[in-house]
Write a structure and sequence with these properties.
By secondary structure, the protein is mainly α. It contains 13 helices and no strands.
């Protein structure tokens, strides 16, 4: 008997969860040296202080946890922003999240002398939030309704402006350039548990809101006029979408730096599997984002001895994958 579409989608989500569990185990095992699974188990369930146990507990577990959270967040945020802007080339950076966080980090370095990752997190998150709110306000300037076009245009303008300010500041201040370069690469390495616990509440709240946004995005996909005619409150959905993307992408960027291609490519892959229904697309994109990000991080460790951070690996692998996707015209229709 043929399976119903919902049954196939449920099986797809279960398959992605299984893949994520396998990838997490691989993330704990692979690196500069292989750590067997029985040693991993002992490290997690006992208080052994062997070198392998210390590596698992202090380095690989927080790195894996952060990779899962950031991947979930960027995948879901990418699906939401592409839905709100109806732009297949959109990613979380389109709302100014990345450049807002970058400018806040640079200002913190130059004016306050902050040079630690833990000091960056709250500045980056605040910068992302302010930039997103600015984009939304500019998108509705003059009393007009916020539309996908005005949102995308406002986001492009604000991102360009903030990017220019970042470049100007780091060119004038060598200290800011050195510290900013470290944060700008995009990495989940060398993060400890404090980074995970500080960002997890925002990322988890954003994921819950992303699922809540999904039915509204299905109506917006019909067009604003049709959605309004059906009694849908478009402004509320837009505001909720911007808040959700800010929580997800802002916290992810604050914790790991700007990691490209997950928010851009993963929603297209999820759409191939789950179809255009955002109630399914959002969770598929989130799980695929976590799988892809962790696989890229593992590849970077294995192929380069941890010289290539996950942001570099995703750029190297993501670019040809995205070119292949956009050549298939059906994939870019939202």
């Amino acid at each position: 008997m043929a399976m119903r579409p919902q049954q196939r989608r449920l099986l797809g989500l279960l398959a992605l969860l299984v893949v994520l569990a396998v990838v997490c185990l691989a993330s704990l095992a692979l690196g500069s040296r292989f750590i067997p699974f029985d040693v991993q188990w002992s490290a997690l369930t006992t208080h052994l202080d062997t070198p392998d146990a210390i590596v698992v507990r202090s380095l690989r577990v927080p790195r894996t946890l952060l990779g899962v959270l950031v991947g979930l967040a960027l995948g879901a945020a990418g699906a939401l922003i592409q839905g709100h802007t109806r732009n297949p080339l959109a990613d979380p950076g389109l709302l100014g999240v990345t450049q807002g966080a970058a400018l806040a980090v640079v200002i913190a370095v130059v004016t306050l002398g902050i040079n630690t990752l833990y000091g960056f997190i709250w500045f980056a998150f605040a910068g992302a939030l302010i930039a997103s709110v600015t984009v939304y306000v500019l998108g509705g300037v003059g009393g007009n309704a916020v539309t996908p076009v005005t949102l995308a245009l406002a986001g492009a303008v604000v991102s360009a402006l903030l990017g220019g300010l970042v470049s100007a500041i780091v060119l004038l201040d060598g200290r800011g350039m050195e510290v900013f370069r470290f944060w700008r690469v995009g990495s989940i390495a060398a993060r400890d548990y404090s980074v995970v616990w500080q960002t997890a509440p925002f990322l988890l709240a954003g994921l819950v809101l992303a699922v809540a946004c999904a039915p509204g995005l299905n109506l917006l996909a019909l067009g604003d006029d049709v959605a309004a005619a059906l009694g849908h409150r478009i402004r509320r959905t837009r505001v909720l979408g911007v808040v959700t993307v800010t929580l997800l992408a802002g916290a992810a960027v604050a914790a790991s730096g700007p990691i490209a291609f997950v928010g851009l490519v993963v929603p297209h892959l999820a759409r191939m599997i789950a179809g255009p229904d955002y109630r399914w697309l959002v969770p598929f994109a989130a799980l695929l984002g976590a799988d892809v990000l962790l696989v890229a991080d593992i590849l970077g460790r294995v192929l380069s001895g941890d010289a290539f951070d996950v942001g570099i690996m995703l750029a190297l692998v993501g670019a040809p994958v995205f070119i292949a996707l956009v050549r298939r015209k059906a994939l870019v229709r939202l």
